[in-house]
Specification:
Layout lengths: L7 H18 L3 H7 L5 H8 L18 H14 L1 H21 L2 H12 L5 E4 L15 E5 L2 E12 L6 E7 L9 E7 L5 E3 L13 E12 L3 E2 L5 H8 L3 H26 L1 E2 L2 E2 L4 H30 L4 H31 L4 H9 L9 H14 L6
Parallel strand pairs: 1-4
Antiparallel strand pairs: 2-3, 3-7, 4-5, 5-8, 6-7, 9-10
The chain binds flavin-adenine dinucleotide (FAD).
Length: about 375
Amino acid sequence: MSDAGLGEEEVAFRDSVRAFVDRRIVPNATRWDLEERYPRELFQEAAALGWLGIGFPEEVGGSGGGSVLYAILCAELARGSAAVALGLYVHTALAASAILHLGSAEQKARHLPEALAGKRIGCWAYAEPGAGADIACVRTRARRTGEHYVIDGAKLYITNSPFADFMVVVAQTDPARGLKGMSIFVVDRDTPGVRVSAPFRKLGMGASEMAEIVFEGVRVPAGNRLGTEHLGFIEALQVLTLGRVASAGFGVGLGRAALGEALRYASTRMQGDAPITRHQFVRFTLADMATRIEAAWRLALHAARLIEAGGDYDCAASMAKLFATETCSHVCERALHLCGAQGYMRESAAQRFYRDCKVLEIGEGTSEIQRETIFRHLSRQAGKWV
Ligand SMILES: Cc1cc2nc3c(=O)[nH]c(=O)nc-3n(C[C@H](O)[C@H](O)[C@H](O)COP(=O)(O)OP(=O)(O)OC[C@H]3O[C@@H](n4cnc5c(N)ncnc54)[C@H](O)[C@@H]3O)c2cc1C
């Protein structure tokens, strides 16, 4: 991987994550994938290294740092296992981050120290049977009754939910107001009326666990609401800035892993007395994969730096997410192709990468949603773009 645009401290951070990933994740990733179980002990291991606390202030148990370190972390973790990266991401950048940015001092003190120590794990419950790419379609309902809300509804495809201790839940509080009628709640897993299904089986991301959560008459104190009543979801969309940059980081990291595997195979796979890299097709395919990944990384880094600088990062983040995740799918497909039948076997890393990559184009706003965002910016800048 190139050092493109990284300062000394960022390189040192990357190297420390890389060493951990090579030692702790790479050798186990295929087994975790086949077992379809999240290695939960990694939450506390990552916490001990300060990684769960990136982007969080020290007074709530955080370790500082910002979007760039987070992008580096995501890329390095995903190089080892995209599924592991996904579980840590949902816990930190969605569930805990919503509490940091929208919560009161009391809510932060109640939840964040344990969350950032990896002792209580969170999930982010937005998607529903009828709400996915279109965020206005949430139907889970939270009705106010005095000092409580009563939540009814269902959340689908929720990562970490099979073992999460707390859930950050998006619900309608005023259906007539659409997006401006949605609030966010922290719900403890053991609250009466919360039911989590058996874990779902998926095409890829085997080691990450997801399920459906059903809420039936779930009574939570009004003090569990995060942010302004009715506006919580809109507020969350404005402050949860890491999603697209993290996804871009995942795409870069997973793409690098696939490139590394293809390069290893092609350099050692002998046909006659020469490796298959003697074929121009193989060399050029590898060169194109590396070039695209490098471009994706620079887009990701650019978006991360814009976020840190407080600039308008919206279009850059969508470009980074779109390009990195589609590049990742392309690169993983090419890697499997180059690895031939050996790559197609169930225990090979190449087939895992191929299965893991697709979801990156779906989560955190599908590619189509990113293109809509980019076009919105283009149309606002008509005539000024070049
Ligand atoms: C592995 C995995 C983990 C996940 N983890 C979580 C989680 O932790 N929390 C959570 O809340 N959700 C999670 N999800 C769900 C995720 O949020 C949704 O998959 C995502 O929002 C897309 O919604 P959908 O799958 O219902 O697709 P749909 O909304 O049904 O979209 C299907 C297709 O139609 C296209 N489409 C839809 N609307 C438009 C439009 N307006 N313009 C153009 N094209 C459009 C989409 O781009 C897509 O290609 C997870 C999903 C997966 C697969």
